[in-house]
């Protein structure tokens, strides 16, 4: 399972309303011991992404699900608001941000990165 967006993924992502604000839902499953590494990534993320308008709305650890199929529980959830899809794309390509992305990759065995827009 892929945990990082590819160039093709980003092209499709940007083709849909590149200037529209977006909130990214991250569903995260850690490797054994990956939680501490991901917490390091979150600290790096907070230090390097404000200039792109990235705002961590919520970061929390999962608990036993109330309603879920087998395998649908997640170790953590992260919501990040961006002023636009373009801002997210620029952040992903930024060399300073990229110095810490290895922490994300090392921490995760599985991830979902779902763009969302406000309803109504």
TrEMBL record:
SUPFAM superfamilies named in the record: Dimeric alpha+beta barrel (SSF54909)
Pfam families attached to this UniProt entry: DUF1330 (PF07045)
Residue ranges of domain DUF1330 in the record: 35-109
Protein's UniProt name: DUF1330 domain-containing protein
Gene3D superfamilies: 3.30.70.100
Originating organism: Pseudonocardia lutea
Domain of life, source organism: Bacteria
């Amino acid at each position: 399972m892929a945990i990082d967006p590819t160039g093709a993924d980003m092209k499709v992502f940007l083709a849909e309303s590149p200037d529209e604000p977006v909130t990214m839902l991250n569903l995260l499953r850690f490797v054994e011991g990956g939680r501490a590494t991901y917490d390091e990534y979150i600290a790096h993320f907070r230090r390097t992404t404000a200039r792109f308008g990235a705002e961590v709305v919520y970061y929390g650890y999962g608990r036993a699900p109330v309603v879920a199929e087998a395998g649908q529980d997640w170790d953590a959830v992260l919501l990040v608001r961006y002023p636009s899809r373009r801002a997210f794309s620029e952040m992903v390509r930024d060399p300073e941000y990229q110095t810490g992305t290895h922490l994300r990759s090392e921490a995760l065995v599985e991830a979902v990165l779902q763009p969302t827009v406000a309803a109504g």
